[in-house]
Amino acid sequence: xxxxxxxxxxxxxxxxxxxxxxxxxxxxxxxxxxxxxxxxxxxxxxxxxxxxxxxxxxxxxxxxxxxxxxxxxxxxxxxxxxxxxxxxxxxxxxxxxxxxxxxxxxxxxxxxxxxxxxxxxxxxxxxxxxxxxxxxxxxxxxxxxxxxxxxxxxxxxxxxxxxxxxxxxxxxxxxxxxxxxxxxxxxxxxxxxxxxxxxxxxxxxxxxxxxxxxxxxxxxxxxxxxxxxxxxxxxxxxxxxxxxxxxxxxxxxxxxxxxxxxxxxxxxxxxxxxxxxxxxxxxxxxxxxxxxxxxxxxxxxxxxxxxxxxxxxxxxxxxxxxxxxxxxxxxxxxxxxxxxxxxxxxxxxxxxxxxxxxxxxxxxxxxxxxxxxxxxxxxxxxxxxxxxxxxxxxxxxxxxxxxxxxxxxxxxxxxxxxxxxxxxxxxxxxxxxxxxxxxxxxxxxxxxxxxxxxxxxxxxxxxxxxxxxxxxxxxxxxxxxxxxxxxxxxxxxxxxxxxxxxxxxxxxxxxxxxxxxxxxxxxxxxxxxxxxxxxxxxxxxxxxxxxxxxxxxxxxxxxxxxxxxxxxxxxxxxxxxxxxxxxxxxxxxxxxxxxxxxxxxxxxxxxxxxxxxxxxxxxxxxxxxxxxxxxxxxxxxxxxxxxxxxxxxxxxxxxxxxxxxxxxxxxxxxxxxxxxxxxxxxxxxxxxxxxxxxxxxxxxxxxxxxxxxxxxxxxxxxxxxxxxxxxxxxxxxxxxxxxxxxxxxxxxxxxxx
Amino acid sequence: xxxxxxxxxxxxxxxxxxxxxxxxxxxxxxxxxxxxxxxxxxxxxxxxxxxxxxxxxxxxxxxxxxxxxxxxxxxxxxxxxxxxxxxxxxxxxxxxxxxxxxxxxxxxxxxxxxxxxxxxxxxxxxxxxxxxxxxxxxxxxxxxxxxxxxxxxxxxxxxxxxxxxxxxxxx
Amino acid sequence: xxxxxxxxxxxxxxxxxxxxxxxxxxxxxxxxxxxxxxxxxxxxxxxxxxxxxxxxxxxxxxxxxxxxxxxxxxxxxxxxxxxxxxxxxxxxxxxxxxxxxxxxxxxxxxxxxxxxxxxxxxxxxxxxxxxxxxxxxxxxxxxxxxxxxxxxxxxxxxxxxxxxxxxxxxxxxxxxxxxxxxxxxxxxxxxxxxxxxxxxxxxxxxxxxxxxxxxxxxxxxxxxxxxxxxxxxxxxxxxxxxxxxxxxxxxxxxxxxxxxxxxxxxxxxxxxxxxxxxxxxxxxxxx
Lengths: 753, 171, 287
Prior knowledge:
The structure holds 3 protein chains of 3 kinds.
Chain A: H1 24-29, E1 44-50, E2 56-62, H2 64-68, E3 72-76, H3 89-98, E4 103-104, E5 110-116, H4 119-128, E6 130-135, E7 172-180, H5 183-189, E8 192-200, E9 212-217, E10 223-227, H6 232-243, E11 250-254, H7 270-280, E12 284-287, H8 290-296, E13 303-311, E14 317-327, H9 335-342, E15 352-359, H10 374-392, H11 396-403, H12 422-431, E16 443-452, E17 459-465, E18 471-475, H13 483-495, E19 502-506, H14 523-550, E20 557-560, E21 563-566, E22 577-578, H15 579-589, E23 593-599, E24 607-617, E25 624-634, H16 641-660, E26 691-696, H17 718-730, E27 736-737, H18 741-752
Parallel strand pairs in A: 1-12, 8-27, 10-11, 14-15, 18-19, 25-26
Antiparallel strand pairs in A: 1-5, 2-4, 2-6, 3-5, 7-15, 8-13, 9-10, 9-12, 13-14, 16-24, 17-18, 17-23, 20-21, 21-22, 24-25
Chain B: E1 3-10, E2 13-20, H1 25-32, E3 51-54, E4 57-60, E5 73-75, H2 88-95, H3 105-118, H4 124-130, H5 142-170
Helix pairs in contact in B: 2-5
Chain C: E1 4-6, H1 11-20, E2 25-28, H2 34-39, E3 47-50, E4 60-63, E5 66-70, H3 75-80, H4 82-87, H5 89-96, H6 101-104, H7 109-114, H8 122-129, E6 132-137, E7 140-145, E8 150-152, E9 155-156, E10 163-170, E11 176-183, E12 194-203, E13 206-215, E14 222-223, H9 225-231, H10 238-251, H11 262-283
Parallel strand pairs in C: 1-3, 2-3
Antiparallel strand pairs in C: 4-5, 5-10, 6-7, 6-10, 8-9, 11-12, 12-13, 13-14
Helix pairs in contact in C: 5-8, 9-10, 10-11
């Protein structure tokens, strides 16, 4: 036992049951407090002035008139945020993204911020701030940004990852390479080769809750931040670092979070809200408008991708190559690198090479979005896989099965796989009734695969047992979709008590050690592991207490089915002690009973999914309806199957929106034209069918229960699954996402012509 | 006069508040009356997170002025459970996992309640279109639709039982 | 100056308030466009005149002589009026397509008209139906064909101090039918990319009169007489429908924007007009 993460194939009592989440009632009655639902005494309203230019030099910011307006308590510009980042370029980029420093790098870039007694006054003050801009040439398209005549955003970006080192700055930040074998030799061996280029437009995470926080800094330099976030500990470090505060003197409390999907892993207004509060000496509440969310908080990359895959006539892939260009917005990112890493992860390839080109453009700083960068790469690769299968006259499914990665396969991004789920999900597709359902006119079926790494990371968890035997579980990973229920199930399982006896909370940064963010599908994996170990530590304490109560050596006490039992004949008269018995006696046996765990769970267990999709196209309007959708994914072990299904369905729905209608539309002036839910079209209820799910459980050998992360992979296959289905319905291969009605109609017209 | 005095009924209670004429009902509910169950997801009527009823009709409270509430009846999510007893829709949203993050949930519950009051036996398509004014980014709507279907079944059963009881009394 | 909010009880009173306000004055009916524009900072009204307390604006009257729909009648209320929905299914459906159920509880036909968006859903259907607007001012009232109200995006022919009290639909001859279709990328919640309204009357199985109107393909809704001529006298055979579609596509003068391309709008205008004509024909009892 102890802190051994190895999978044990134990029999479960409560794991896998579909209990009600502890935060359910608050969320159906309106009591749950989200980012914008908190208020502090004497709080001010904070608003931002944002750049109307895609790229401009800021020659002067005049705040004098605004400062004179009655009710204005603080105005800040970059002058109030001195650069304390000390050579940390990542931190410097965050600082500059939060508040422009001499130049506006995208439409929506923050230029100044105001704190005033109410919204009206703050708005008036913004109107009174005069900014003198000198417009500069801009570039928003990832391919255009790489052209020799493109305006260069930063004079300090010299492409890394290439030899020889470039002598001039450019918009290409880094080139990363993954793969193994010899692709030239591999393509020479191929009987059939398919090569194709694809584009995908920029999408937003589209969480319904805008970013919101209440910041309060005291004259003594301590501060508090209430914020909607996926990682309050990270927010604390970043904000304290940027503002020159001691980390321990800033307490961050995470509100309930109204969706994040990666977009709330980054700070946007929070450091500025703290700076406003520091200057005004009053709490400041900042709530982004929806327009600000779209213009200035984390979308995902738009991309341009070339794929080349070759195979023998028997269907064996001999070589695979991809060049992936991802824009990270106005600041360098790792998005193309992630795309390159994930692109061929589903397959067992002798010769493979993926090149990731990370590019900057005049768009908002890109943020993680659920399995960041993988969906676009999967769209390009999985579309090409279908094209190649067609050329080989193989069924796309059989072609994938033939080349699927398996235990022992060296992944294209480096490691050698343990037991993995790609093969089983494909076999499950083959058996699924969906594959045999009849299609009607103008309908088509497609399938595609997807991969995501998953992540472990730093975790710190605290489990306390009250004298009545009820258990408080305090974790530091944000609950984005029901993890408090899953973690309570885990604690109940370990302690041998009913689920209802456990209450899980998200601790603030003052109550626990550092926890990494809820990203990388890590919440239930890593906090789950820490909960297991914390509970086991508490069990050890309880064994010792039982030994004290019985006055026998602790070695003679075992823990079974939630009870301490004395072993050996000499103790046979001692009646087993329940957790409640031991807890009740705890004030007299050594005080409170607790278990803790601080760890860095590793090997989160890679995750694979295969999706099946049926679409119907109206050939006269190009409208596409998804009429049936099935998600098959490996969960390792589903702690709460209903919530696992929910992750599968939610990811698929986001992928469907991305595939068909969602896109950032920029005008020639470099300004975002659709910063609202009216024209940034996320799926509505009537757009979607029920989304069927099948959970496979191929245990992760590196988790006691076999858990793998489940949250992200489901967004990876839909773009390609829909593209493949459309191709089968209409005979046209869509190479540009979103596959919107005008693009489909255009493709159909070209087919006719 | 900068502020208007508004006399209204919210969740059955007589309520008075003062607000400037250009303030939304959503803002008045959240910032003046402490009713923060209705959420602002967009402020432009596109997401439905601020849904309430106004004289029994479903509206986005961000697209109603506070002053328009004068003399009208409003219900919000805070009034949905009666005496601590959850409405079947509320029960089923938890039971069927129709919420993940929960930010859209109050709006969906209000919209679904209005739907079932008007149409106790809606088809899946009717449910989907009736809820199309409410955006959810977490669930893909699957479990929301299932929770509404289950609630419709339950509410029909309850009505049936009520009907039988009434009949029983008469005879 | 804080914004003023008034709730007159007569149309004349409303017109006087609007006329006497020196600053920006707006009529508040459903507010589903107006409050959005205020929220986004596009307008800063000095005065809102809420017309929902005016009885003459809040009712529907329907008889053999015609139909009068008050300017404050919501889309939902209109949809619930069975007799109007039966006589003018196209007009009612078009109005009911505006926004979500939440929006339907508030939005009005007249608001949709006066917002003067080229993509307004109810407008092509109203124009196809031959609807007229009752315009009231201090000086009296005049009746104006709906197609004369909107003069360009965001622009109307109404003078300061004029307010529309109601929409009047003509008496409905027997064997008549109307229909309205729009294209949106999603199934709900979008603004029309392109739309078509058709209203027709049959005589002995053939189209006797017709009006065909397109939306979102020009600065204002477009009446397409050539499209009407293409089907008048026909039994809506494939040939007539093709001519109708071609006439519609030819009448388009759209723009490329975030919602659609010139090419797309031009092509789909014809497709929708054909489909709407078929529905109207069927509703008129055509076979």
